Amino acid sequence: MRFMMSTSQAILTWSGLCAILSPPILGSAVQLLPPPPILVNFTADVVYNYTGTLNQTKSVTPLVIDTFVDVDRNDLGFWHGPSTSLPAETGHGYVRLFPSDADQNYHTELGPATCFDMRPYQHMYLHLVFSGSTKFSISLNQLNEKCDSRRSPFLETWDSVEAERYARGNDIYVPLDHFLVDQSRTVSVSFHGFFTWDSLTLYKVEIVSEVPWGFYVPPKLENGKLFLHCTRPNSFAFGIDDGLPHLVRDVMEILEEEKILVTFFVVGAGLRDKGANFSSVYKEMLQKGHQIALHSDTHQKIEGLETIKAVDEEIVHNMETFQRELGIQSRYFRPPYGTIGARTRQRLAAYIKDPNIINWSVDVEDWLWKDSKTPERQRDAFFRDVGRGGNLVVMHYLSPTTVRYFKEFIHFIKSLNIDIMRVDQCLEDPDSPPIDPLRYQKPVKYKVQSNRDPGAQEGMAE
Prior knowledge:
23% helix, 6-stranded parallel sheet, alpha/beta, 22% strand, 7-stranded antiparallel sheet, globular, 23 strands
């Protein structure tokens, strides 16, 4: 079991916190890993895109998803495998995982990287035969509304349960209705959110119609909804995480000039640092109409913390600091590094009514390129993800290069005649402020210039 530090032991200055936000650690911020390209000559005896009667559970044959007899394919004929950073030992009839990070994951696909309709099985159970650790999350993953693996985000959302709550001996039974996703658009089952170094061995993953007599299945715990994409038509949102004090004024000037509203995800430790003066800055942001949302207390990978007490401290101290320093409460939370699993979601719901967990579908990749020899690749990343359909951003003001490109990003979205707004507004939250139509009257003309031409300047707004 790896050594974990509770948040009460992690007393960070703002300069120390900014160091945590630097590469390469922030480079691990990922959503659950999409599968590789579809195998060309797969064969599978499986029903997907089901459109028949949905309530005849007794007529539905139990579905064996994976018995791990093949290295590359599960029993359905589709891909299974670990993320590149997760060591795994494969054998005939098992896979053994050796996790060391909460972001690592193992997927087994339900269809060929397209939507699989789970509704015929909706009153049945996900059954795992396993040995070893129970310190992980199990997720049912939902594909985007286009059922297109080339779109961003690939996984539109997922719901997770805590394996330990459902485990008895070497079996886990989870009612499928405990996964609150659109089950007409499922794509895979995954295992992630590890918070020990203990190994996990999987022998079987299947859908069955009943549990053994006497096997206790716990109730579903409340948890937060996860969003990676705006739901309001023609909307776009910049979700800006914390940055450096000397750059925040530049960001504020850009927002004022461009007359847009954004959402800031704010770490509690930064607000408490009097030298950084973030409390007065974010109070001013609030007065100007921007949304201020939670981002943990000390920017740790919360799902990887060993104890519930440590998870709670990251959430509660962030909330208390917001109340004390800004006089506000928030239902919106962005997990540091985008790392999210069942425990974090459940503990958020224990303290916040209907929490919204916000990841992203546009990654500027400032964590990777901001101080490199090619900072313009932040532009490439932004245009790439927007081109794939992404409309909810993650970025930081940790570098002058990112701040410099920020105005260009805004101009490009305006040139598409897309409305830029706060995250709560783009998610059509009835409690969000009404949209001001005067902000969206005139699109900006924009011309993209190549980064590859040594003589080219930045993209120009006219």
